Predict the 3D structure of the following.
Amino acid sequence: MTLEIGIVLIVLLGAVVMFATERIPVDVVAIVAMSVLVVSGVLTPQQGVSGFSNSATITVAFMFILSTALFKSGAVVGIGNRIAVLFKYNFWIGIFVTMLTVGVISAFINNTPVVAIFIPILVGAAAQSKLSIAKMLMPLSFASMFGGVCTLIGTSTNILVSGVAAENNLEPFSMFEMTKMGLIFFGVGLLYMMLIGIRLIPDRGVDDGLMKKFGMGDYLTEIVLLENSASVGKSIKESPLVKKLDLDILEVNRKGNAFIMPSEDLILERSDVLKVRCNVEKIKALKEREGIALKSDAKFKSLDELAGDKKKDSRIVFVEAVIAPNSPFEGRTVKELSFRQKYGATVLAIRHRGELMRDKVVATQLRAGDTLLIEVDKDHLQNLQQLELRGRNTFLIVSEVDLPEYRRDKMFTVVVTMIGVIALASFNILPIMMAAIIGSMVLVLTRCISMEEAYLAIDWKVIFLLAGALSLGVAMDVSGTASLISHSLIEISGSLGPMAILSVLYIVTMILTGTMSNNASAVLLAPIAIAASVELNVDARPFLMAITFAASSSFMTPVGYQTNTMIYGVGGYRFMDFMRVGIPLNVIFWILATFLIPYFFPF
């Protein structure tokens, strides 16, 4: 073992641990790994930054723009709303048509925005039809993955592995090269979910409203400031109520005047009635000391009561929102975000990694998949919706509120452009990279999306992750690390032939993807697959396909794939729910891949 191999192995092991634990953002880990490899001399500076110029990285960036333009046009929303009506008549017909439709759409655009569009649609359908949302969202996420493996542009992982192949002087994947195998996965996955999978999902009950879902009965109440209250004469931000009780003041009623979402600088007065978020028992224990009194009808029975009588045109809206994967909110607290000041809204509760948090809400570090119960003035609701429509989602509003304004007049142009991009790449008129670039510029020139929105649409966290991870793949190749690992793999299972190597690569990719980024898993294992094919003197394609399908089909954890993360909190799932439903499906796909990939892609 050479010094260079030793360095690469240490960097590789460190990167895998950091990717899996998420203590440091994955894009930062990838760039740090690249920097270490350049500084240590394993890579030249040109090799280190080569991932940024890789055709796969560029293609993924422009596919984000195309997907966002389609999202903003509202084309998918119209389809989803029509499907939602089916649930009123029969759950099984509704879920089958939903999965089939989502799978087909996800074969051609990034599945993250597809799932983002369908989540609030299904939440509304579940509420109206009195169905369990848990039984609907997991099939939605899984179906998007079934469709994603049917074409080259179905997921960024497919494009990425194709780019790695091209960088190693192998033929890149064609648009529909994966389709035959992908359709088998799609059909088997759909059959499994309809016959077995949905029945394995625990029934979390029917959604009885946000108040019950977030258990806010004892956390929303009204108090009256007495004459001896230490808070009288002080601003809200300086009030002992806020500092000592971790209490959010949602409204101040003073002599018939209501201050909704009051400014932190509002001075509190004697006899003010405050609508607050705080544990009622905590208030009871401290009320004498703090000079406050609970109103006799303090406990609220519904969110509507807190907001006020709807007949009086209440200005308060309560919404549920989920933190999107790669959101700029990740790793920050509500307090650090100055959420109330910036967005005119208050976070009342958080469902964080399966745990419901109503105390210390402002100090909780947010993670992708967390769901927030938000109180917002109607005048500020549009601000939240605009955050949702920026392309690189900050969060996704999943409650039934007025839909944001889509650009339906641009729908025809966007759909035709998408079809054109697919056609240009499918008939080999242009490489997919150039087709995506030209398509994106057509949408900008026709004002379907502005240049500013195009920049915002690109998930730069993913781009930096891909660029850094690709440089790690280059280091594994030039240092001989990939050859060393592949040689060891062949020594262990090589006597059983290349099919055994393919099977091992699939299951290793599957396990890694369940704990860290699917793209990172694919990039780290692709060089090993290519090195193994060279040593065995067989075609690398079957090995690369095994990695592609495994990395794009992660069902057994809520953190292995972005769409699983998105539905985690909204569906009220627990970690074990994904394992219960996902592990059997992963095993079925593993067995299928082991025997069918060599048939469709001979060694």
Summary: Residues 218-299 form a domain with the Alpha-Beta Plaits fold (CATH 3.30.70.1450). The chain has three domains: 3-206+414-600, 218-299, 315-397. DSSP finds 27 helices and ten strands in the chain.
